[in-house]
Amino acid sequence: MKKFFLVLACLCLLPLAACSKQTPAASSDHWNQLAKKKEVVVGLDDSFVPMGFTKKNGQLTGYDIDLARAVFKLYGIKVNFQTIDWSMNTTELRNGTIDLIWNGFSITPQRERKLAFSRPYLKNRQILVVRKNSKYHNFSQLKGKQIGMQTGSTAEQWYEGQQHLLQCGQPVLYDQLPNGFLDLNSGRIQGLLLDEVYANYYLAKLAKSRNYRVIVNQSVPADLFGVGMRKSDRILQAKVNRGLAVLQKNGQLAALNKKWFGQASNYLGKN
Fold it and tell me: Going by CATH, does the domain composed of 126-221 fall within 3.40.190.10?
């Protein structure tokens, strides 16, 4: 009788064992699926000039838009861009709503704990933008003042760990950076902490760009942009890295840097 119940118990456990074996498969590499569909979904904040943004005519454009399309063109795969709440980018990736985060996405230790990254393809750093008619010329002069930054941005993550360099207390957070510029103009905030690539491009396009001053602190290290993906997507990671290397070798990477930043940089870091 004991033997009967033992056999019965083992039979009952078989479905559970099968399920446990399927768990890794559910989080396995998605490259074969993407290659079969010939489509990949990239998540982005469509207001992040110049990396990925929507023009007045509704057309999506930007440095990362061009770069992602160029990489996946090598594999005959179409890129679909999905606008997401940037503060939820990791959740969207984990839920499968998107396949990649490719939108001026800085590689940070906090993000590397949750995600895998491609090799870095662009250098960036955090800077402050203030009104030119203000009295602020360095980080220390903004001590105790109100500053703004984008929710979920590298600026927010950097500030949380480096408040000794910019002692401004609790920042004002924005879903989109243009709203931060509105508050800067109105005087609600005294400075806006953001990516240098965004600031330089955005200010160059403003009719009244001379109304602003960019403050750079040499103690702020450069950060690197990479493509974020699930840790299980190792083949996808290798394919993206190979694609970036091909674009570097054939000159397309330099051409894109020239187009968007005015400098034919051909930087590509190690994975």
Answer: yes
